Amino acid sequence: MVEIKDLSYKWKDGDKELLNIDYLHITRGERVFLKGSSGSGKSTLLNLLSGMIVPKNGTIKVLDQTINALKPSHRDVFRANHMGYIFQTFNLVPYLSVLDNVMLPIQFSNERLQRIKNTGIEPEEEAKRLLQVVGLEGSDLLNKSATELSVGQQQRVAACRALLGSPELIIADEPTSSLDEDAQEAFINLLLKECTRKQTTLLFVSHDIRFTKYFTKVIELKNGSIKELLTTNIGGQ
Ligand SMILES: Nc1ncnc2c1ncn2[C@@H]1O[C@H](COP(=O)(O)OP(=O)(O)OP(=O)(O)O)[C@@H](O)[C@H]1O
């Protein structure tokens, strides 16, 4: 599902290398918890995996596609089709309603639109289903603009947007950092439930090691390289 080989990365020529990863493999359906101290390069690694930046050395494969070999426009299409990204700051579009924010990925990805249609469900119904799963429902709320929501609500909307159209990989960059403890636990449970339902691979970045119990693989980024702390064999490829 994800394979990194001989990757090295530095932001600027002349800098010391930030990342030096010989090998990392993530299996389809795996739930991966990535930890590492502040500044260790976790977000940089996620940016590389999603093809937002490219390394000078090494290969990054997602779904057997070497994404760093793709042209920038093809990388954008690949990302839109196959990855859902939950940002630390959610990045909802402020002037769009809750429902339209969740529906946004299918504006950019025909594949994700088609995946929903193949299930015989209309895209709007699927968006509403996801919002209901995370406890957001009712036309008043769905028609509110994203700026009118609480932080916890925005976070749940961001998760639904990432999940819509079943991308094979969900990348979540410290999505729980601005929530209280109960809301964090509830959010992770909902995310895991949807990922299990669709056999989605989840790469979840957090500082909060209380949550490692929910994950099948725990990895740490330290001094630029990846250390595997736990891997549970789940089968798959
Ligand atoms: N766009 C950029 N241009 C130049 N340097 C950058 C850029 N983004 C990050 N860096 C540098 O790369 C290093 C790693 O940053 P990164 O955000 O990947 O760490 P992190 O592990 O995600 O940190 P945190 O846990 O605090 O979010 C830092 O020294 C940072 O200054």
From TrEMBL:
Domain called ABC transporter: residue spans: 2-234
MF-aspect GO terms: ATP binding; ATP hydrolysis activity; transmembrane transporter activity
Report the InterPro entries cross-referenced here: AAA+_ATPase, ABC_transporter-like_ATP-bd, ABC_transpr_LolD-like, MacB-like_ATP-bd, P-loop_NTPase
Q: Which SUPFAM superfamilies match?
A: P-loop containing nucleoside triphosphate hydrolases
GO CC annotations on file:
plasma membrane
| PANTHER family hit by this protein | ATP-BINDING COMPONENT OF ABC TRANSPORTER-RELATED, IMPORT ATP-BINDING PROTEIN
Keyword list (alphabetical) reads:
ATP-binding, Nucleotide-binding, Transport
User: Matching Pfam families, A to Z?
Assistant: ABC_tran
Name listed for the protein in its UniProt record:
ABC transporter ATP-binding protein
The answer on whether this UniProt entry bears the keyword ATP-binding reads: yes
